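Question thread 4412

I'm putting together a teaching handout and wanted feedback from people who do this every day. The idea is simple: show students a protein as raw sequence, then show them the structure tokens that encode its fold, then repeat with a second protein so they can compare. Below is the first pair exactly as I plan to print it.
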Amino acid sequence: MDKPQPQPQLQQPQLQQLQPQQLQQQLQRRGSESAKRKLYTSLNNQFARLQQNMLIMEQNIEITSEQIKSIQNFGMAHSALFMAANRVLRTDNRDDKN
């Protein structure tokens, strides 16, 4: 008859074989690695948002650069209206005095 094969003993997790001080150090390393992963994930998400915002800003700058000539013309027309209104008001004031 065949003898039953002895079952291999399952190894206990490494953390239980460590001394208390080593166990604490191991847990801190694992905790810091987890914290680092979370931090990198957060930074990656922030970088993605920043990159998207930079693309939007670049598009806005392109539109503004195309519109700058129209903005200048609008400013000159607005200035001309103020000068004309000033001249009309001065003329009205002179007529009232006479």
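The second pair follows. I'd like the answer to focus on this one:
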Amino acid sequence: MADLDVTSDDGNPSESGGDVQAQIQQAINQHQSDWATQFEQETGHKDVKSLMAAHQQELTQSKERENAYKTKFEKLQIDAAILAETGDAISPAIVKDLLAGKASCDENGTVTIDGKPVGDAIKDLLENNPFLAKAQGGTGSGAPAVSTAATQKMGRDDFNRMTPAQRQKFIKDGGEIV
């Protein structure tokens, strides 16, 4: 680009166009320097790229903390739900340890075990493993109850006409062949 002579307001020739371009460039550089200084004072970062990197690191750390708290919350919800339903178990802690690994907690805090409500899953576990359940019924020696009813008596001919299953039941119930 060719240098143009520019006259001032009083009609006198002023600096050439090249000098104006230098002044504009100098003003731009000064403005950028002032902006960078103010940006660093306000944000603590030299440029936008370092600010974005710092924000990304903060975001990553926040997500990690969120996940850690979510995991703790889920574990507490699962433990509390299982322990609340283990009234029929000999050792609630053992039942909790057995089922906690199969349990899941949704975002509302609802706990399920293998897709079933906690109470149903514990009931199934105790039915399938009765040694984990408290004894049901009254206390006693464990000896079979003695029947006060008279024993049944049957003749040999009647006994022989019975099916094998009926014979076995008759004998098991204390029946007597005469």
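Top answer:
Good format. For the second protein you could add a caption like this: The chain has a mean pLDDT of 84. The beta strands are 5-7, 13-16, 103-105, 111-113, 116-117, 153-154, 176-177.
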